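Pasting as-is:
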Amino acid sequence: MFLSVFDLFKVGVGPSSSHTMGPMVATARFLAALRASPFAAVGLRASLHGSLAFTGKGHASDRATILGLAGFTPDTYEAEAAEATLAANRETRTLAPPGLPVLRFDPAHDLVFDYGAPLPGHANGMVVMATDAQGDVILRETYYSIGGGFVLSAAEAAAVTSAELEAPSPVPYPFRNAAEMLAMARGSQLTIAQMKRANERVFRSDAKIDASLARIWQVMRACMDRGLAAQGTLPGGLKVRRRAHAIHQSLIAERGLNLTAPHTINDWMLTYAMAVNEENAAGGQVVTAPTNGAAGVLPAVIRYWLDHVPGASPARVGEFLLTAAAIGGLIKRNASISGAEAGCQAEVGSAAAMAAAGLAAVLGGSPAQIENAAEIALEHHLGMTCDPVAGLVQVPCIERNGLGAIKAVSAASLALRGDGTHLVPLDAAIETMRQTGRDMHAHYKETSLGGLAVNVPNC
């Protein structure tokens, strides 16, 4: 089963890929099914379950569901149009999705947060329904938001079997784990990025690959620049102040004065990552890397490399992204990138592993050193919980991305000091993360029922 670099890196909207983008994608799919249905719908309903219910309001899942049912999608999201649609819905209690009649939808009655047992397929479940004039359900579908903006219907989730995962792939380098990736690299004498590009080439031209990679980095960079420029307080009620702008200005002022210690370079990485995640928390446009909650790690490491490492070249950002995507694909395939499924080790931990691999690659690392860098970064995020205070992607998420970026750079540097030989394989770290996520109590998996979320006042 092939996972493209453009599946992992998707342009979307904050604050959460699973809780905001996921419901928007799911409801867009439902509208497509409704348009093809012979039934005449008069109204819409939706219910959110599991983690989508527990932290849905803090993650804007209610807004995303309403906007998705109105026809919005993450990749074409426009903030002003969204606000106008929400205002119209508050006034009329209706929605007017493209290609369908005006439909009744009163969020007070038709959008339910179900705090009971989660649906069986995944911790992030939702049910979407269309009703007739009598209020009877004429079309119903269950969806699971499985992390990173990926969505499966109930039927698709049930069909994902080990046999399907092991099915032959049309790509020339169909590595399913890190051991196979390294073996294929040795056999082909290609880098990880070159193998990933060869796989992508089956589906699109080099020109298209390069243009799409450039677009991904452009959106990442623009998000970071907006975050570095913005000031004020983030929405949601915690009154968290944006800090990236002030820290960035102080770092610029100190530059060249020989007043700072060498470890101040960490402050640059922290600021780059925090800028992205402050924008994400404000509902801005971001790129899943591999999720919104972990969106700051990878672009912060790229910016660190470009702006602070001698010899860095923007022409090699594509190589960084392709390498990172290869690692992210292995983690998603063999474990998880969903905080609701495996805690923050699956989000920031995965992002740090991806970023470490990408940095090691552009710094000249061998495939073995790149795999080692990813393993170090992931290993030292194992067991990390997902416990957002008040269900918002702010505390501890914003700072956590900054620390993830620092760990990624340290992991790459440490790996490049060796020859690629190491005791713990990346595959073992990924499997450990999967097992740890399976065993982790639900309170620590994006439900805001444990950890910091219950030990920090929500006001």
